UniProtKB/TrEMBL annotation:
Highest rank taxon of the organism: Eukaryota
Annotated InterPro entries: AAA+_ATPase, ABC2_TM, ABC_transporter-like_ATP-bd, ABC_transporter-like_CS, ABCG_dom, P-loop_NTPase, Plant_ABCG
Membrane topology: Multi-pass membrane protein
Cellular component annotations (GO), alphabetically ordered: membrane
Region of interest (Disordered), residue spans: 1-20
Family: Belongs to the ABC transporter superfamily. ABCG family. Eye pigment precursor importer (TC 3.A.1.204) subfamily.
Organismal lineage: Eukaryota, Fungi, Dikarya, Ascomycota, Pezizomycotina
Localization per Swiss-Prot or TrEMBL: Membrane
Name of the protein this chain belongs to: ABC transporter domain-containing protein
Organism: Meristemomyces frigidus
Listed Basic and acidic residues bias regions: 1-14
Domain ABC transporter: 33-275
Keywords, alphabetical: ATP-binding, Membrane, Nucleotide-binding, Transmembrane, Transmembrane helix, Transport
Transmembrane segments: 364-386, 398-421, 442-468, 480-502, 514-536, 605-626
Length: 629
């Protein structure tokens, strides 16, 4: 489907273009002039230039390769052009000859990262459909969206894989090359005018690499797309697909211009490309100083960069860049952030909720493994504390079971760390692509977790509560489920906070485990509150969510139950003094008094639990807003 057709599809009844797609097709050039990128050197206050004096121009319908040895600055240049580069940047990046705000860059371009961020439990078609829902506002009808997905599947040779899962470690799905094609197609669904690709062929064999570049080339030609791709050592066939080449080394330009002009240009420098050799390989060896004899290689590189700076081709390039900035007509220059077709926050939320829901029930790592684990734990707990009785010798085991159940269930929330980190990694990349922000991400995470945590709490309780013979009435059972649910919700909120602060598997696991150990220690069961050292008491005890869960469950168990004292030689021995002592019984409230827990404060404790959960979530949100990587 041509860009024009896409445009026509999105017109509303008044004939105006509701999705404002036409503006996106008005990009006539992307140019950059005298780009310099400085970064701070490690262990030194002096900044270092990782790109110096880089200029170039890319046009619609053409593919430009950014080439050079590893570390030469390809990704930095690509990120600078796409307005994603941090650090101090000097120089101009223009679209249609004018510097444009970042919002315009975002609206007219798409960026495909080196690593695929696909969701393994979605099919190819679903992946594109969700990409469409995130990229395109509601002005496009469902029918047109479906048509656009179908066209992209065709254009990237993915029709037969439309219903194939992308693939997870547990379920084989698409091949590496097919995944790459899905990643690119997903970025193209919003009909961008500029496509940035960071190492699109990395990890692929030469056939798959050629195939993906061929699909992109055809698409670029057909849809007048500007394509700029960093690429490592392409095969001759793949190299031949590029129209333009920018060759870099040590952050400096060695060449930028037509691929066809390269052989003549290097021949004039007495560096002729041997006829039977892959030109890309030859050129990379030529400008690589890492492995050759260093001084000789450095001298050759200096020669190439100085020759380039004074070459006629360089002068022509600069003239073209300047020309693009002066000759652009006002009509062509007109690009506004309003040209964004992105949907609003409500649609983002619903789209992410739908996608996360599908992922959560298809991807066993997210909740199903944990569900089985918690069920195993429930059977273990129910059989260890099997059929406790209402005799005083079982009072302590009841209290121990409550402590173990609440604390260990909370502790096992560490199993959520990998799933959250996986979701977060996808979020970071999708945020960089402007799909949605931290609020939508964390709200979705919270909402999706609720039914699963409730299911886990209920299943666990159905098994452990009745096997253990806890307070056998419906009200107490459902209160127990509620406390357990809030316990898990708080524990998962803690995982979200910690893993947002330290987005690293081992680090997040260690800190979450440590925090759980801390909450167990200062909760008031292992060390009673009057004995607990004042530092731990005032610094941590009062916002320890496990405290309130434990207290709530204790009140639930002991507030209305009585326990038989032991009779030895006709003498009644009660472990706890209570009003029922003359009946040789212990009122459960006496046990609670021993722990210092008042009956009737459950409402207050539930309120504190909700506040702690919201506190964790809000802090996690602040961290996510501030932390970009
Ligand atoms: N934020 C940064 N701080 C310090 N150095 C940086 C930063 N970003 C990039 N560099 C350095 O700049 C140089 C260019 O990095 P870049 O990632 O752009 O290279 P590349 O050509 O894409 O490499 P590769 O092909 O290996 O991916 C490298 O030496 C890298 O270590």
């Amino acid at each position: 489907m041509q860009a024009n057709e896409l445009r026509d599809m999105s017109r509303d009844e008044n004939g105006s273009d509701a999705s404002t797609l036409p503006e996106l097709s008005k990009v006539i050039s992307v140019s950059w002039r005298e780009i310099q990128v400085m970064v701070k050197k490690q262990h030194s206050a002096r900044p270092r230039a990782i790109l110096s004096d880089i200029s170039g121009i890319a046009r619609p319908g053409e593919m430009m390769a950014l080439m050079g040895p590893s570390g030469c600055g390809k990704t930095t240049l690509l990120n600078t052009l796409a307005q994603r580069q941090a650090g101090s940047i000097v120089g101009q990046v223009c679209i249609n000859g004018r510097e444009q705000p970042r919002s315009v860059h975002r609206a007219v371009s798409a960026y495909v990262e080196q690593e695929d961020t696909l969701i393994g439990s979605l099919t190819t078609q679903e992946t594109l459909r969700f990409a469409a829902d995130f990229s395109i506002s509601r002005s496009l009808s469902k029918h047109d969206l479906v048509a656009r997905v179908r066209d992209l599947l065709n254009e990237f040779g993915l029709q037969k894989q439309a219903r194939t899962l992308v693939g997870t470690p547990f379920r084989k799905g698409l091949s590496g090359g097919q995944k790459r094609r899905v990643s690119v197609a997903a970025q193209l669904i919003g009909n961008p005018s500029i496509l940035y690709l960071d190492e699109p062929t990395s990890g692929l064999d030469s056939t798959a690499s050629h195939e993906i570049m061929l699909f992109i080339k055809r698409f670029a030609k057909q849809h007048n797309l500007v394509v700029i791709a960093s690429i490592h050592q392409p095969s001759t066939k793949t190299f031949d697909l590029f129209d333009q080449v920018t060759l870099l080394s040590q952050g400096k330009m060695c060449y930028s211009g037509s691929r066809r002009d390269m052989p003549n240009y290097f021949a004039e420098l007495d560096l002729e490309i041997p006829p039977m050799m892959n030109p890309a390989e030859y050129l990379l060896d030529l400008v690589n100083i890492d492995f050759a004899y260093r001084e000789e290689a450095q001298a050759r590189l200096d020669y190439i960069t100085t020759q380039w700076a004074s070459s006629a081709l360089h002068r022509k390039l600069i003239a073209d860049v300047l020309d693009s900035t002066s000759s652009s007509s006002d009509k062509a220059i007109h690009l506004s952030p309003g040209s964004s077709t992105r949907p609003g926050i409500r649609k983002q939320l619903f789209t992410l909720l739908r996608r996360s829901f599908i992922k959560s029930y298809r991807d066993i790592v997210t909740y199903w493994i944990r569900l089985v684990m918690y069920l195993g734990l429930a059977i273990m707990m129910g059989t260890v504390w099997l059929r406790l009785t209402t005799t005083q010798k079982h009072i302590q085991p009841f209290a121990n079971a409550i402590f173990f159940g609440s604390a260990f269930m909370s502790f096992m929330a560490v199993a959520y760390v990998p799933a959250f980190l996986e979701d977060r990694a996808i979020f970071i990349k999708e945020r960089a692509n402007g799909l949605y922000g931290p609020t939508v991400f964390l709200l979705t995470n919270f909402i999706i977790g609720i039914p699963y945590l409730f299911l886990i709490s209920t299943l666990f309780s159905v098994v452990a509560y009745w096997l253990g013979n806890f307070n056998p009435n419906a009200h107490s059972f459902f209160m127990w489920v509620l406390w357990l649910f809030l316990d898990l919700l708080a524990a998962e909120s803690l995982v979200v906070l910690v893993a947002s602060l330290i987005p690293n598997f081992v680090g997040a696991l260690a800190i979450t485990a440590f925090a759980n150990g801390l909450w167990m220690s200062v909760g008031g069961f292992l060390v009673p509150l009057p004995v607990l050292n004042v530092f731990w008491k005032y610094a941590f005890h009062y916002w320890d969510y496990q405290t309130y869960v434990f207290q709530g469950m204790m009140v639930n168990e002991f507030s209305d139950r009585t326990y038989d004292c032991t009779v030895v030689n006709g003498q009644c021995h009660c472990m706890y003094a209570s009003a029922l002592q003359d009946q040789c019984k212990i009122a459960g409230t006496a046990v609670l008094e021993q722990y210092g827990y008042a009956v009737g404060k459950q409402g207050q404790w539930l309120g504190i639990m909700v506040a702690i959960i919201l506190g964790y979530r809000l802090t996690g949100w602040v961290v996510t807003v501030l932390r970009k990587t």
